[in-house]
Specification:
binds adenosine monophosphate; alpha/beta; 5-stranded parallel β-sheet; 9 helices; 8 strands; about 200 residues; 3-stranded antiparallel β-sheet
């Protein structure tokens, strides 16, 4: 099964993806995660990416596609994958259309204020990528023992730019996939397990 998770920054795509991996036994590909790995490598490309990501703007599509193609060529994607953070523009959606038959697009619907609260309290494990919120998790270590970090782009100024970028570039994809008849809305106003349950019900149909 090939799934896209669509939603504003902080809507809960990464958390839902982590839950779906265990249930569906297919990998999640987060283009943000691929870009962060490139940043950590400290290459010239990584430095350019850092500048764009920390400002909240989109990284050029050719760079993202290059990283995505490499990841998709891995054999673990042969039974499907969950895309988190791709596509983010109509241009990227058209590209994806040519290389994969997407089965379902889950559109995570959540109130802007809830998003801002979630992002401000978000902590991500340096080792396994698990996502926590300080409102519900009171430790500086992940359950795997890894340190919990605040993402460089999870500050109020960058979040505001990321949200505007989403509204301008990515929100049009809701209509795009709705017209293709593969979009389903998932209202994510409850707990992570609640959202996972709703998503699984949709995917079973
Ligand atoms: P995310 O981890 O999905 O929140 O992405 C973090 C940042 O990575 C975004 O704000 C963008 O700067 C960049 N990014 C991730 N995915 C894409 C994409 N598909 N196209 C362009 N930039 C991206």
């Amino acid at each position: 099964m090939k799934i896209i998770l669509l939603g504003a920054p902080g809507a809960g795509k990464g958390t839902l993806a982590n839950g779906l991996i265990k249930e569906l036994n297919i990998p999640t590909i987060s283009t943000g995660g691929l870009l962060r790995s490139e940043m950590q490598a400290g290459s010239p490309l990584g430095l350019r990416i850092t500048e764009l990501m920390t400002s909240g703007k989109l990284v050029p599509t050719d760079i993202v596609i290059q990283l995505l193609q490499k990841r998709l060529s891995n054999s673990d994607t042969k039974n499907g994958f969950i895309l988190d953070g791709f596509p983010r523009t109509l241009e990227q959606a058209e590209y994806l259309n040519k290389i994969a038959n997407i089965d379902k697009v889950l559109n995570l619907v959540v109130d802007k204020q809830v998003i801002l609260d979630r992002i401000c309290g978000r902590r991500t494990c340096r080792v396994c990528g698990s996502i926590y919120n300080i409102q519900t998790y009171n430790s500086e270590k992940c359950e795997c023992g890894g340190d919990l970090l605040i993402r460089a782009d999870d500050n109020p100024e960058t979040v505001a730019v990321r949200f505007d970028t989403f509204m301008e570039n990515t929100a049009p994809l809701i209509n795009y996939y709705n017209e293709k008849g593969i979009l389903a809305n998932v209202v994510c106003d409850g707990s992570a397990s609640d959202t996972l349950k709703k998503a699984l019900e949709i995917l079973k149909k």
